[in-house]
Amino acid sequence: MSILQDILTFEHIVIQCHDSPDADALACALALHTFLQEQGKPARIIYSGRAKITKPNLIRMVDVLEIPAEYVVELPPADVLVLVDCQYGESNVTRFEAARVLQIDHHADKSNGRGGIVRSSLASCSTLVWDMLVREGFPLNAHPRVATALYYGLYTDSNGFEEIAHPLDKDLRDNLPYNQVVFNSLRFNNLSIDELGIAGRALTKCRIDRDNKFAIFRADECDQNILGFISDLALQVDGVDVCVVYSRLQSGCKLSIRSCTREVMASDIAGFIAGGGGHRQKAGGFIAADKLGDTPVSEYISNLCRSYFSSYDTVYAETHNLGSAAMPVYVKRRIPLGAVTSTDIFEAGTPMLIRTLEGDSDVVASADILLMIGIEGEVYPIRADKFRRNYIDTDQGFVKDFTYSPVARNKITGESVMLVSHAVPCIPTGRVHIRAAPISKDTKVFNSWNPEGYMLGTPGDYIAMRTDDERDVYIIKKDIFLMTYDPA
Description:
Blueprint (H helix, E strand, L loop, with lengths): L2 H5 L5 E5 L5 H16 L4 E5 L8 H9 L4 E3 L8 E5 L16 E5 L9 E4 L6 H11 L8 H14 L9 H9 L4 H8 L5 H10 L3 E4 L4 E6 L4 H11 L7 E7 L3 E8 L6 H9 L2 E2 L3 E7 H4 L4 H13 L2 E5 L12 E4 L4 E5 L9 E6 L2 E6 L4 E5 L5 E5 H7 E3 L13 E4 L5 E3 L5 E5 L4 E6 L3 E5 L8 E3 L4 E5 L2 E8 L1 H7 E3 L1
Parallel strand pairs: 1-2, 1-4, 2-3, 4-5, 5-6, 8-9, 13-25
Antiparallel strand pairs: 7-8, 9-10, 10-12, 11-12, 14-24, 14-29, 15-18, 15-23, 16-17, 16-21, 18-19, 20-23, 21-22, 24-27, 25-26, 27-28
């Protein structure tokens, strides 16, 4: 039974946002409240804490989207208390005693076995609730208030969509039928005079490492989108290629990270220092208070950043000197895979975004380009001549049940296509070999397929190259390599 179906078994339902609720919490509460109404189950939305909502954009959001959120100091009668965008007993939410508590959240899992669902890999709780509603067949097209709220919830929690990595976050951003007029009225009502002052003060508190060209800025407590605003400005400082802006909270430290060099993806440094995510230029993260200990935050972050810059090797495919003769030779097992001719899904010349659990990549549709689908849903392009040498058609089926099924998105029209629905099964011929060796250190590989970024391998993954083209260098994840290659 899904958590939504579980909630429907109760009569008196109360939905609680965290204290001083933000747009993400309010959006989730509205979506859940609307779903329950559609099922004939009335519910109440509450929040508590020291004060009522005061931020202009949130007051407008509650008013325009008609969110029935009530400020309370006592819990109304409830058979079940459903917490959204927070977890029971945490410092950011007033604890009310309830007969049954369920949690729907996207922060670090501290539920200690309590009922509900926590998906900490997502940038917003709105994404989680959206996915739950889609799985239930809820008609979001018929509920523009809900769609707009969830869209705005992700927008604010991801610094304007800049700090998202999970494909579900990207799918919400790309597919939700939101009201653009209402969204813009909220988006452009988001910076107060006080927050402008926070930005100004933050830019005067800077710690710079000139050797590695990174800088750290401290901001007073503020929303994630304000941190992003500050970091966008900070990156314009001469001699700074990477910047980290942080805001200290009681529960930890929020981060916004920017990079303007292809050698450092903001998402990677966010993952290294804070378990966060995002994309190449912009990312975010959170460091829990118990990790910081007594170390000053700027010193803690500075030490982690220096560790990051010394933690990896860099390999450029066109100029590498890997000593290939010493690398063992492997052949791909005859395991069924999937292949999609790119022009079978979009016209030749169409710019496509390929979305997988590992991230997004760009490809232009061409009769000469096929998209291979691996055993875990990974996708990589291959030229037709290489495909014909390496693979043959087969009647055997290939695995299609992935954690996230890869998608091709037309970058002009926005149309999305599930790749597995167009895939033809094939198996390796066994005629082409690779040289490969495990890496003992994080390694960034720059190849011709991804000129603006790199493939990142971690210890245990394999760096590989084709025996017939030693400039075709790439990373193969350890688990995939062990399942798909044998010594030649």
